[in-house]
Design goal:
4 helices, elongated
Length: 133
Amino acid sequence: MRKELGLLNIICLLVVLGFLAMAVISVLGSGDFLTIDNLFIITVCLVMALMFAVPFLIYLFQQGKLPVPFLKRKAAPAPSLPAGSWGATGSAQVRAAAQAPPLLDAKGRAVPADVRAIMNRMGSRTEAEAKDA
């Protein structure tokens, strides 16, 4: 599959270069640049080049090889906290929170997983304190 995708991208790139070459030849080869026929041929060549360039550009974007200006990047993951510190969630707590039924707030919206983990930790402390008393 990867070889086929690479071959299709190469073919699209060659077709794009061919259409761009046709547009450049049309510009350089005509005596009068601003004729309706010449402008039509140049426009058609450029639109066809764009249509064949789009799949190649999408492939580069999906692979992360095409930097797109003005596109907000995803934030880097937050550094993990030590296991004993406040706000740290153990992997067992996260898995239990993910498997538990959704915890809802007062308006009926789902509570985020980190808030659910904090609530579970608070609930386990109150149960432990109740047993000691």
